[in-house]
Amino acid sequence: MAHVAPTSHRRATRASHRGDRTADGPIQTTTWLGLTFALIFGLVLIGRSHPGVHAAGVTLLIMLVPLTFAVFGAALFRRGIGSGKAALSTALALTFVVLRFLL
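The chain above was modelled as a monomer; its predicted structure follows.
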């Protein structure tokens, strides 16, 4: 019969590490560049004349704008910006998208 340690000697299982968010580090450059690419792609889709493609671009941008604001919020208040140039490119793309919807 195999020896099994008593329950009092066993270590607790760690199902998640939710409390350790500071080890994540700043927002990665690939995140900023991915958001920039997706925003520009949405603008390209909006410029197409086919109604379905145009609607796909609008849908993409409607989903990306709140996500981009959330990433900027996380970067500013919790994690750090990371690559400043990549974050700047995302900010410029977001500015173009917001201006496109407002004007």
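The CA atoms of residues 81 and 91 lie 12 Å apart.
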